[in-house]
Amino acid sequence: MYTVFTYITRIILVYFFTYLTTRIMSKKAIAEMTAYEMAGLMVLSNVVAEPLVDKVVIKSVFGGGVLVLLMIIVARLSLINKFSNFLEHKATIIIENGQLNIKALKKISLSFNQFEALLRNKGHDKIAEIQTAIFEPNGELSVFPKPENKPVTLKDLNITVPNNTFTIPIIFDGNILLGNLYHIKQNEIWLKEQLTKQGINDYKEQVALAEVDASWNLVVLRR
CB count, 10 Å around CB of 49? Predict the structure, then answer.
């Protein structure tokens, strides 16, 4: 029983230490990580798991700390131009001036079917409509249509719109999101007054979601 409890304790410690170190290492999604970040993540997974095998927790903590320090140093070096070309992938131009570069596709080991799928994800189904397509270092595809194929904007139509803010949630599942409420420079008194105007007296029981939209209207979704 003691052995089981000890093992479970080590698992919990390893889990939270791994969480803390990966959080320090990067805020990026896995698909957006650079090669050195992926390498650090894979090595870290092995280092922090050592206490589950050899029972020496301090070794894992020391190794994880060294890895995090190394990741920070490499990340700082990547900001310097003469190191960034070595540490990170370069952007690859696949379509330039409307011309598809087959050699560029082969260089980055991207099949034509995969390339077409990436184009469709960007809302384009015809290569002939594309002026420039760039495969970015993080694996994303940047697509720039030819001028005649670009969508019409409000500026093109000489239409002006107010510079409104985005929609902000204020209540979720009956709980007031105080940080968001203070962000819009309001308080609970104002919020309750707005809810009362909509016939809501008990937001904890009646409100699933309440948001302040770009026009400063309180939009409420009831339970």
Answer: 13
The residues facing 168 across adjacent strands are 212
Nearest-Å Rg of the Cα atoms of the chain is 26
Query: Is residue 214 one of the residues assigned to a domain?
Result: yes
Separation of alpha carbons 60 and 52, rounded Å: 10
What is the C-alpha separation between 221 and 223, in angstroms, rounded?
Answer: 7
What the block records as the tokens of 147 is 């001028």
Give CA–CA dist 112/106, Å, rounded: 9
- Rounded to 5 degrees, what angle do the CA atoms 110, 135, 146 make? 110
92-134 pLDDT tens trace = 899 999 899 999 888 888 888 888 988 999 888 888 889 999 9
Beta-bridge partners for 5: none
DSSP states of 2-48? HHHHHHHHHHHHHHHHHHHHHHHH--S-GGG--HHHHHHHHHHHHHT
181: tokens are: 């409420």
For the segment 159-175, what is each residue's pLDDT rounded down to a tens digit? 776 665 678 899 998 89
**Which pTM value belongs to this model?**
0.54
Structural domain that includes position 189:
168-222
Our count of domains for the chain comes to 3
Same domain, 99 and 128: yes
